[in-house]
Amino acid sequence: MIYPVRTIEEKINRYQKKRLLYRPTPVSKLERLSKHLNGPNLWIKREDLTGLALGGNKSRKLEYIIQDVIDSRADTVITWGSIQSNWCLQTAAAARKFGIKPILLLFETYETQKIMDGNLLLDFILDADIRIKAAQKGRVVKAEEVEGILEEVFNEVMEKGHKAYIIPIGGSMIGGSMKLPLGAVAYVDAYLELKKQMKSLNEGLDSIVLASGSGGTQAGMLAGAQLCGDSTRILGISVSEDRDSFSQDIKKVSDDVGDCLELKIDFKDEDIIVFDDYRAGGYGELNEEVSEAIRLMAVTEGIFIDPIYTGKAAAALIDLIHKGRFKKQDNVLFLHTGGASALFPHKQGIKKFLL
Ligand SMILES: Cc1ncc(COP(=O)(O)O)c(C=O)c1O
Questions:
Q1: pTM for the predicted model, two decimal places
Q2: Both 202 and 339 in a single domain?
Q3: Does the chain have fewer CB atoms within 10 Å around its N or its C terminus?
């Protein structure tokens, strides 16, 4: 069904949040990049400039999640991610801001040196309780694989007389102590924010291109577009999962968002657009196209993107433009979801392709 923006906002506002970001995040044109690619009108929304820690899409999600942690009277959060996880860094920073202790399970899902660099350095500065774990390379560690260890850490916290809250990876799927898809709800709100920004510029949006990892950002933006009845296509560039299974994850989270907001979202299968051909060999792997995309964004626009997420989304955007996916007059927005601090621990890979 289609709802007025005000109705959707009212439903979202029933969920309280803690303030963690400066909003609205900026939107601007990528004129030199559009020209260089002879492409459509390219735009960018700077979710990397949220203001929490070094910024990123997780700040928005954490506004609702930290509120839920506080409401549940927990004093410790437990979550997991990869060794250089942006999610874990943002969670640790958000937790610290509200006097909550962060415990991070960091999995070695790709090869980087275990030295204090990038987000790992920042996790140390935040004095997070960091527990580094071995993992299979090239893919994100899913919830069902960490159930045992989460339970162990949860019990350890409780035995010491504290109260723990387990946040699922990326704050997207319902799980752990999070009973609602709060991260994705935050991205419905982000979609409405973006819609208003484009309206004030007298512009519409044909497509939004974004990196998709745990799926909450894509599911929330998609739910936002569907609820508003907009024809804006949300193109999710998977960094880890294959298209078929990941599309189902996105659908599940979007459906949960509809239930949580008590609004009916009508999806057709073709509304869920996931590309899995830009994974560059697997999660955390780097290739020439991704490295070139990172360089092109920097030399045309002076903007840094990252090797694990936004670099892959940008490589996809460039390839899709070359393949004629967009019309020349289309407005295509690149959602910059953050993560540039991962450039430092991945310097060897980047040097290999760019020097
Ligand atoms: C920089 C960056 N972009 C995009 C994503 C993907 O967001 P989501 O997990 O909501 O799919 C992540 C997730 O960790 C991220 O760190």
A1: 0.97
A2: yes
A3: C
**Residues 152 and 278 reside in one and the same domain:** no
Is 85 considered catalytic here?
yes
Look at residue 202 and tell me if it is in a domain: yes
Residue 4 has phi, psi (to 5 degrees) of -65, 150
Domain co-membership, 212 together with 332: yes
* Tokens at 114, concatenated: 């275990």
- The CATH number that applies at residue 320 is 3.40.50.1100
Determine the structural domain holding residue 202 and report its residue range: 5-56+182-354
Cα separation, 287 vs 299, in Å, equals 19
Is the pLDDT at 113 greater than 70? The verdict is no
For residue range 303-354, what is the model confidence (pLDDT) as tens digits? 999 999 999 999 999 999 999 999 999 999 999 999 999 999 999 989 999 9
Same domain, 52 and 99: no
Distance 214 CA to ligand 1 centre (A): 7
Pocket of ligand 1 (CB under 6 A): 56-57, 86-87, 170, 172, 211-218, 306, 309-310, 337-339
Query: Do 228 and 126 fall within a single domain?
Result: no
Q: Residue 169 CA: which ligand 1 atom is closest? A: 9
Tens-digit pLDDT profile for residues 140-185: 898 999 999 999 999 999 999 999 999 999 999 999 999 999 999 9
Both 39 and 114 in one domain: the answer is no
- Check 85, 214, 247, 254 and give the catalytic one: 85
The total domain count for the chain is 2
